[in-house]
Design goal:
The chain has 189 residues and is of the alpha/beta class. 37% of the residues lie in helices and 23% in strands. Bound molecules: 5-O-phosphono-beta-D-ribofuranosylamine (GRF).
Length: 189
């Protein structure tokens, strides 16, 4: 059974779905979530994780340099044995030192084709540019922002979406299905 640590900064809808899949879905007996970590002590996802029986830890980054902060994060997560770090709405860029410490052990999900759009507000970008589709991307995390090796992409049809909310809803529905599937494949590798 592979051990996952999920990193979040906010609402944690991907996190919730992954936990559900480990407890009662496609990841049952394949993977377990040993920790949810957040850089934001107020992240709503933390309470959700706790209500699902998952251990959580947080560390505010206020006043700490990136490298210093990530060293402390390493200390926290290394108390747990883990196979994979799953970024799910984690809004910090990881330091090169942190990324190098865990080669091919950190993955992220991004709401757009990372070759075309990196960073924040990818659904907004798709909506404002009237894109007929977006490509949800799951990728390994390297030292750049959303530049790591692509593991899988899934196209979402955005035609007919009249609001940003609709775009997000369609996209998130695909994210929630895709991310656990990718994790499952990686767990078998
Ligand atoms: C998702 O759209 C994910 O692709 C992006 O951040 C958002 C996180 O949403 N990286 P949630 O916290 O999982 O609900």
């Amino acid at each position: 059974m592979k051990k996952l640590i999920i990193f979040i900064s906010g609402r944690g809808s991907n996190m919730k779905r992954i936990i559900e899949e480990t407890q009662n879905g496609i990841l049952k007996d394949v993977a377990e979530v040993v920790l949810v970590f957040s850089d934001k002590p107020e992240a709503p996802g933390l309470a959700i994780a706790e209500s699902m029986g998952i251990k959580t830890e947080t560390l505010s980054s206020i006043g700490l340099k990136r490298k210093e902060y990530d060293e402390k994060v390493s200390e926290i997560i290394e108390k747990y044995a883990f196979d994979l770090i799953v970024l799910a709405g984690y809004m910090r860029i990881l330091s090169p030192e942190f990324v190098r410490k865990y080669p091919k052990k950190i993955i992220n999900i991004h709401p757009a084709d990372t070759k075309r759009h990196q960073g924040l507000d990818a659904y907004k970008w798709a909506f404002e540019n009237h894109l007929p589709e977006t490509k949800i991307t799951v990728h390994y995390v390297d030292e750049g922002m959303d530049t790591g090796e692509i593991i899988v992409q899934k196209t979402v049809n955005l035609q007919g979406c009249k609001t940003l909310k609709e775009v997000e809803q369609r996209g998130l529905a695909v994210e929630h299905k895709l991310y656990p599937e990718v994790i499952k494949k990686l767990c078998y590798n």
